[in-house]
Amino acid sequence: MSTIQEITSLEGWDQHLSSLPPSTLLIISFQAPWAAPCAQMATVLSTLASEYPVTDPPSTSWVSINAEELSDISEAYDVTAVPYLVLVRGGEVLETVSGSSVVKVRNAIESHAKQSPHSASAAAGQEAAATNGAAATVDDKNGETTTEDPENQKEELFKRLKDLVKAAPVMLFMKGTPSEPKCGFSRQLVAILRENAVKYGFFNILADDEVRQGLKEFADWPTYPQLWVDGELVGGLDIVKEELANNDEFFKPYSVKANGDTPVVA
């Protein structure tokens, strides 16, 4: 059975890529050790990998990459949040899955693992249908078309959001990334977190419209950026400024200076 190989260096990554034939489906899991959903996803992927036998040449290759330590690789695949799955064959990105939806991850892997390089392009041409507002999908096992209830979709999204807001003790949902904020409010909030030496995780809501729209309803807060602490919404830039004005030690429990931690580049 297949197992997940941890890539720990750029040299190891290059060697692994060069060892794979063009027909191999490369399953790349980007993760961060501080994010609880990543640990859950690691268990899911390990279980999925065990369902695929080791072949010669390999039909699948499973790797795990620390998105922060190997940031060059993360940037090459536009990784803006973790967990993040990338499926590659012959150097071409076939599909990406952001977040911890087990259903989406399994479906993506099963779909592309069954395809040869020649059949992949034909499958990509299929369009999703819609019936009375419910998403229509095709069951690969029997070819029947089924519909997914919008309420079930919403419930699944809210479960994902519940995990995301707890991905780190301090989570920033922003437009862009800390190194490249896409709005002034996000830029100012990043600056405040850095000034207070806060160890935090972030999510670029511009990279995932499902999260961008869903979090507004989930949080009952219509704007971005949003700052969450210990799974609870603090608010936007103005609220954070108010909290600091009332308590200049508001961020002290999460400061790398106070705890002696090694700073994390978000």
Automatic annotation (TrEMBL):
UniProt keyword annotation of Iron present: yes
GO process annotations (BP): intracellular iron ion homeostasis
GO MF: 2 iron, 2 sulfur cluster binding; disulfide oxidoreductase activity; metal ion binding
Source species taxonomy: Eukaryota, Fungi, Dikarya, Ascomycota, Pezizomycotina
Pfam families, alphabetized: Glutaredoxin, Thioredoxin
Official protein name in the record: Thioredoxin-like protein
Domain Glutaredoxin: 170-234
Biological role stated in the UniProt entry: Monothiol glutaredoxin involved in the biogenesis of iron-sulfur clusters. Binds one iron-sulfur cluster per dimer. The iron-sulfur cluster is bound between subunits, and is complexed by a bound glutathione and a cysteine residue from each subunit.
A single GO cellular-component term on record: nucleus
Region annotated Disordered, chain positions: 113-155
Family from the record: Belongs to the glutaredoxin family. Monothiol subfamily.
Keywords from the UniProt entry: Iron, Iron-sulfur, Metal-binding
InterPro entries given in the database record: Glutaredoxin, GRX_PICOT-like, Monothiol_GRX-rel, Thioredoxin-like_sf, Thioredoxin_domain
Regions of compositional bias (Low complexity) in chain numbering: 119-137
Organism: Lasiosphaeria hispida
The Thioredoxin domain, residue ranges: 11-101
The keyword Iron appears for this protein: yes
